[in-house]
Queue: 2 jobs
Job 1
Amino acid sequence: MVPIVYNLRSLAVRKTTTLATAGGVALVVFVFAAVLMLSEGVKRTLGRSGSDDIAIVLRDGSDAELSSGIEAPQIALITAPSEVKRRGGGAPDAAAEIVAVLSLDKVGTDGQSNAQIRGVPDDVMSFRPSVRLVAGRVPRPGADEAMIGNAIRGRFRGLDMGQSFEIRKNRNLTVVGVFEDGGSSYESEIWAGRDQVQSALGRGTVVSSVRVRLRSRDVFERYQRQLQSNRQLGVDVMRESDYYAKQSEGLSIFINALGILVAFFFSVGAVIGAMITMHASVANRSREIGTLRALGFKRWQILLCFLLESSILALVGGLLGAAASLSMALVRFPMVNFASWSEIVFTFEPTPGVIIASLVVAVLMGLVGGFLPAVRAARADVLSAIRA
Amino acid sequence: MSAEPIVKLSAVNKTYFRGSESIPVLDGLDFEVPDGAFQALMGPSGSGKSTLLHLIAGLDRPTKGSVQVAGKELSKMSDAELAAFRANHIGFIFQSYNLLPVLTAQENVELPLLLTKLGRGERKTRAQTALRVVGLEERMGHYPRQLSGGQEQRVAIARAIVNDPQILVADEPTGDLDRKSADDVLELLGRLNTELKKTIVMVTHDPAAAERATVTRHLNKGALQ
Ligand SMILES: Nc1ncnc2c1ncn2[C@@H]1O[C@H](COP(=O)(O)OP(=O)(O)OP(=O)(O)O)[C@@H](O)[C@H]1O
Ligand SMILES: [Mg+2]
């Protein structure tokens, strides 16, 4: 084998072209890694919202809370089965909620955007123990008050402590609290009393969904069978974790497809860059190649040597790009979720899988770009190479 | 006395083709070198000296005829077989040294050993031994640009002998050197011939260089004189 120091030092000698070429690869890897990280972030944000010992009940045929409606009398039937966990006083550990979308003025732009509002029961904090107040207090029952998730705080006009926003024309809610929920999508929601939301939006007593905490995750199938076999009830039962996984699916696929498309077009440029660089480098080193061949190195060893060199070149770019993409972990990225048509703030989640995939892509670009120049080096005639 | 010559060319023809034009360089050449000889090859420019060396070294194949070196028939070998032959039997010394500029003296000398099964440590020892033979052991960490022309050529000679080949082939090895460095290189080749029993075929324009050899042969228009 031609020693790897030969490749490393040859790249180091051509510092400027090496860095320029690696920079092209770095850009592609940065885009690619950022997209994968965002897609991971979407899964993580929506995945955090769901747990597998909670069942979510929607109207039969609705695949999202927003399009679902359940009449008030049905709530008791949904929470009645023995699989549903009971609280101290015997009441079911459940939350019937209404979900709607508000169009609010965005801060920092002229436009409007959608934010999701959730009408929650008064005891919502005991149903969702992971939710934690970071400022203010919980809205008083019956008052025109709301609390907001930390992720949308300050993103819309009126969404900050002490400010107020219109839930409908001439009907204001005042923000009295800000909550956190470990980065889940709830942090992009507005929570107000269920009655306030129902009456303000003219929904009567209809709710969007009923969540029930099960005695254990294993009784889910039994609970589901029981509710779904009741035709008159007309509901769908899903594990909450599955529900959110499904919610993230479309967005995640969209991000991946878009990002990989963009990365692909960028990569054509980077591959051509690598090809030009390696081509020039091979032409400049014709005598060295001829010398190696004269010493007894075979054509395939020359081929391998230059493929290795372009892979190293691309890997340098890959490492730079992947390192730069880690900085995206600090960025919060608001995006409209297709399932709710409202903005959710996502983060970029760097995972080892994303970094490995990015480096593999970098090396592949190096191999593709380096292939023709390496073939040219391997095919050169020994004597003409030495003479050149 | 070994009867078999180590180099034996019989009825060798070498013709270059440039488009429709054919340039016959060697035509019906018979050429033998006995084992252990140190022969100088002289002749006017364009007479085919380098062409002949390349055939002996397995860097090229004859158009017609037979080239036998170290008991092997080279004219029918594939590219890969010729590469293996060069690695095992030939040490080639170029006029312009042809050291790889990004490798140190020791790394350059080690190159041919990378084609063997030798381990790292053994390769290093052998490269250092070869550098000691050419008197440059203390320069092993230097890059070619940090060496004089004469030193570069001695490193190239160390690289040519590190695999312990039977035959050294040198094409104007002193062509780029001043008198003093040239004499050092010639003295070294002489020692390699007498002490290490290397067969040496050396093309040269320099009569002083030819004097070092035990035999001087003249090539003119592709024919020996
Ligand atoms: N690849 C080639 N294609 C065409 N003609 C060639 C080629 N190589 C050598 N020749 C021709 O063959 C002839 C002999 O060349 P060669 O290099 O063997 O001469 P030489 O004796 O070594 O000359 P010099 O002393 O100048 O090195 C020359 O006329 C040269 O132009
Ligand atoms: Mg010549």
Job 2
Amino acid sequence: MKNYKIAWRNLWRNKRRTIITVASVFFAVFFALLMRSLQLGSYDHMFRNVIESYTGYLQVQNEDFKDNPTVDNVFAFSPEISETILKDKNVSDAVPRFESFALASSGSLTKGVLVMGIDPEKESLLSNVKERLVKYKLTEKTIENLKKSELPETVKSKLDLFKGESYSSGGILQLDLGIRNADSSALMPIIRKEASFSNGYISSGNKEVLIGYRLAKYLELNIGDTLVLIGQGYHGTTAAGKFRISGIVRMPTSDIDNKIVYLPVDVCQELYGAPGMLTSLALCIKDNSDKKINRMMQSIGKEMPSPLRMIEWREMNALLINQMESDNKSGGIMIAILYLVIAFGIFGTVLMMTIERKREFGVLVAIGMQKSKLAAIVSLEMIYIGLLGILSGIAVAFPAIIIGQYNPIRLAGEYAKVYESYGMEPVMPFMPVDYYFLWQSVIVALIVGIAIIYPVRKIYKMQLVNSLKA
Amino acid sequence: MKIIEIKNVSKIYNESEVQVNAVNGVTLDFQEAEFAAIVGPSGSGKTTLLNLIGGLDNPTSGEIIIDGTNLAKLKSSELIDFRMRNIGFVFQAYNLIPVLTAKENVEFIMNLQSWSKKERDERTFELLKAVGLFERANSRPAKMSGGQQQRIAVARALASRPKFVLADEPTANLDSKSASTLLEIMEKLNHEEKITFIFSTHDARVVKMAHRVITLEDGKVVSDDVRE
Ligand SMILES: Nc1ncnc2c1ncn2[C@@H]1O[C@H](COP(=O)(O)OP(=O)(O)O)[C@@H](O)[C@H]1O
Ligand SMILES: [Mg+2]
């Protein structure tokens, strides 16, 4: 009889214990895989959103701009640069930006603001500023009208809570008013009609700006009003100008919403006395694989004249990556605890099994079984438990993740609002099956490996006469 | 022919405060095809002596030579192999491997010795018949009575034709009828196979069946009678 066969039979001697142990490994593997898949999936989702809707995967900057983002560290944007970049087949377009700081004032109110010069048309290839424009506003008048409408009382009672709020998407408005998706087609048109807010956009050459909703509130400004910007211009000049507010935007974070001012890039260059200059040029690329991006860093970077350089998404989003890594760590700790519990379960099983079979081990060695063979059999038993647990865990998690990939979990309530406000779909997608599957197996293998040490040691250190007496 | 020589063997246990001379200066020889009982009251050193002969324990002093091999000269893995090739064991109870059938248990040592399937099958069936359990070949130990299990253990001990079989109180857990059946089978096999049996017991009826009776007291041989 071969070792593996004896081991297999031994496994089923104590069916209940074996099943409990295998089941614990199964659950650990299953949950760890699901947790991992969800976590990695949402990072990926968030990343794509931040990168694809803001920084882009690659930018051209002055080499000093990242460490010292002042107006002096800009670069002259020439047709040659544009040509060099667009020569790369993987680049579909380039989005120019001029980013700086200024003091904004209106009447006696003043505030430090972030000035973003954008190409009003091209910008929509990355961050969709147009979509951030406030579309609905719950003014006092609006609420009054809505209260007279045929909206249900539950919705009407919520209206006052959001007096003065403005929305760039109907989704958030719907969430705020607690309207379920099923009722939205009946109720939302009524609300939209009353609450809709008309906004203008900006266009090249016109001294018009879009400002954040909170900034507008702070400066007590409205559409059509004038905003004064004062700052330090290129090479020590003074930047100052008066701009008409053509629109109000609602930014996802209050931090940005409190200080953002968008204006056409050419108007911005003029304001700072830096015609033709940019702080960054973000590339729209087709294939965003790491390999491709690295290749582009090299090939395009080589052709950029000094002081220009290529900067990739990882460097630009270091803070976000950091945050995700620390979040990732806490997820890792959760999984570690899960496995620790399982490890104790396995160790318990091994301990009991070794004690119970002390005499049997003694008899086997007495009648002539080498200790190495006995150790191999006992190890195989543990390996079977590990394998059964891992394989069954994977077998169930695998289709679950595939299903989750195509039917991501839809978020509701507050979470959904956060996602919506970032312009992200409120879903938690699963990460497709990847290396993290391998890791779970490695961890279980490691636990089993450690668990095997105990019986194997006992077998090798066995005092035959004592074992036989047991 | 001498197959076992025990030369002035002692075993002293120091585990507790008092030192115990479990076996105290024993000198004995065993020949081929003997059927010998070691008797004596509980604590007289029967188990210890059998363990020493079987190479399961080392003597504190003295030598044990089996078929010309001094057990003390063997490394621990060599000693395991030596037992596997030369000595059959029957213990008081729970001898069998619970996950193996009667047939597989009997085959076990032949398997360790890599016998061919044909040889194994022949020998196993021969022994199963000899112990009267041919029809239980596919039963697991848990499905058999204590007496049946001991008969299978005897079959296993004999399977690979060892030089001798050691049985430490093989009947201790059996009722008297099963005990005498077991002894009859052992005696018959001893006769047919010419394999030496050394068994310990304190059951008077079992002692009666032995051809040689060695009596221990406080670890010493106090009598050694051969009966025909
Ligand atoms: N491992 C041990 N440690 C200490 N004393 C032991 C040990 N094994 C046996 N003894 C002692 O040795 C003596 C002989 O025991 P044993 O050989 O088991 O006798 P028997 O089998 O005749 O009952 C007893 O006094 C027993 O207490
Ligand atoms: Mg005893």
